[in-house]
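Interim report, section 4.2 (structural modelling).
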Amino acid sequence: MEEQIDLVGKAFTDHYYHLFDNDRPALSSLYRPSSMLTFEGQKILGVEDITAKLTSLPFDQCQHVISTTDSQPSTFAGGIVVFVSGSLQLPGEEHHLRFSQMFHLVPIVEGNFFVQNDIFRLNYG
Amino acid sequence: MDPDAVAKAFVDHYYSTFDANRAGLGNLYQEGSMLTFEGQKIQGSQSIVAKLTSLPFQQCKHNITTVDCQPSGAGGVLVFVSGTLQLAGEQHALKFSQMFHLMPTPQGSFYVLNDIFRLNYA
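Predicted structure of the assembly:
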């Protein structure tokens, strides 16, 4: 059961950051009207506003490099919490930005999940 | 229930207890609680307290930089913390991030269901 949770957490984060780095508008498929994002302290509610925020970030390209992924089962309803740390490379920027992010994933049918909670923070040196 | 108030009260209590008397953290966890500490997975209040009280330092001080929280559904609260950890005798503070998933108890308080801790290396 533990290993299964790790596999699910890793598969989700691989997919999430791949979309973020290659097709940011497609992130809308991972959120719902009830989803919440706190991005550097700014609170955003619902898939539309969250997608608008993420697609309006002031860079066209980026690459996430993930250092650690930790997952745990979260509630009796099959949810999963995932805690990620890594770095974010923006083109033209010499130094990577380090970040931490947590997701609370809630299952939909057939092993798919959506992001109910998302909190992102840069880690300043 | 105001998630911000719950988060603030919890964070204040958790880190002041950690810094003053780590064994006192036991009543914040239950049998089903899970801690992942720098990648090591630990389950249940007893094992978690054993881990935290056996960390290789006597004294420490947490300084909290950011606290973010959101309701998780079913009355739960997710709390995401970043800050620094100063160990006695060490010149440089360690940077860390930690997330908690708090669940309500029948008595009207909260316990930690999920706890994940990571140091943030430069």
